[in-house]
Amino acid sequence: MGIRSEETHNRTLTVRSPSGIHTFMGKKYSRPEALRDVATHYCAGCGHGIVHRVIAEAVDELGIRTRTVGIAPVGCAVLAYDYFNFDVTEAAHGRTPAVATGLKRAMPDRVIFSYQGDGDLAAIGTAEIVHAANRGENITVFFVNNAVYGMTGGQMAPTSLLQQKTTTTPTGRNAAVHGSPIRVCELLATLDGVAYLERVALSSPKAVRKLKKAVTKAFRTQMDGQGFSLVECLSSCPTYQRLSPTDALSFVGDVMTKTFPPGIYKDWEKKDA
Ligand SMILES: Cc1ncc(C[n+]2csc(CCOP(=O)(O)OP(=O)(O)O)c2C)c(N)n1
Ligand code: SF4
Ligand SMILES: [Mg+2]
Question: Alpha-carbon torsion 56, 59, 62, 64, what sign?
């Protein structure tokens, strides 16, 4: 209550042993300024909270909090404007890339990002994402792929895995009936306007650190005026992947990655990536 986490977590511990006196520095963790001090509505183990935290840390470290504008999707992250401590607006389902385009063109000095789920980006919003990427809009997209429609009750998404059971594919996704999973990074990598594309599987602390690097690089891509950047986050949804939070992390790391291999799909700094 009222105690900042800097004070509670940044302690030193001194241990005396026969070999001498050892001082251990406590690791410094605190709430990023770019994240509000409120409880979120996300289920326990949901990947959205991790992605929010990493975006907020990157915004703080880049010193862009007062000039960042996010666009929240329709999906479980619909209330993201209550969680980020910078300007966030809302768009109709799937239309955040169009809103981002308008904001960036009108306010080129702002850092603009679109935040989207897999239903939002790869189903109803397919046209918006493909054309924003193809035009090389100088915007950043954070794409949370949890292989399901979370907000509406666990229906099949375009990224649901083959054989995955959802409320609309109770016997499993069948390629002949429902098509195969859409691989967004691979699809967008073919477009000339795209500067940077990376997919990260959020299944471990190491992966979270990787996401931080990717998010920072995506923002830098925009700040350097290089064009369209997108980071796909393979993400847990324990509620509709119908797994415990820890099993959902294994599902992301061991199962989703077979269909969606992590990696850098396009990098303007390394033209042949
Ligand atoms: C025009 C329109 N069509 C359908 C919906 C219903 N709807 C709300 S969220 C959603 C999908 C959400 O899934 P996703 O984008 O994957 O986000 P998640 O909740 O999994 O993070 C759908 C179909 C809507 N709100 N508006
Ligand atoms: S339903 Fe899934 S995506 Fe939505 S908040 Fe819960 S765990 Fe997260
Ligand atoms: Mg989803």
Answer: negative
Sign of CA dihedral 145, 146, 148, 153: negative
Closest residue (by CA) to atom 1 of ligand 1? 93
> Using CA atoms, how far apart are residues 91 and 140, in angstroms rounded to an integer?
15
pTM of this structure:
0.92
List b or e across 209-235, with b for residues whose CB sees 16 or more CB atoms inside 10 angstroms. ebbbebbbbbbbbbeeebbbbbbbbbb
- Report the residue count for the chain: 273
pLDDT of residue 10: 52
Picking from 149, 174, 64, the residue whose alpha carbon sits closest to that of residue 112 is: 64
Q: Which residues line ligand 1 (CB under 6 A)?
A: 74-77, 93, 117-120, 124, 144, 146, 148-152, 157
Tell the burial category of 106 from Cβ atoms under 10 Å away from its Cβ (0-12, 13-18, 19+).
exposed
Ligand 1 atom closest to Cα of 118?
16
Which residue segments constitute the domains of the chain, with CATH numbers given? Answer: 33-272 (3.40.50.970)
- Between CA 166 and CA 113 the distance in angstroms is 30
**How far does residue 90's CA lie from ligand 1's centre (Å)?**
13
Measured distance CA(92)–CA(65) in Å, rounded: 24
Parallel, antiparallel or unpaired: strands 12-17 and 20-25: antiparallel
Residue pLDDT, tens place only, 107-154 = 999 999 999 999 999 999 999 999 999 999 999 999 999 999 999 999
Give yes or no for residue 80 CB within 6 A of ligand 2.
no
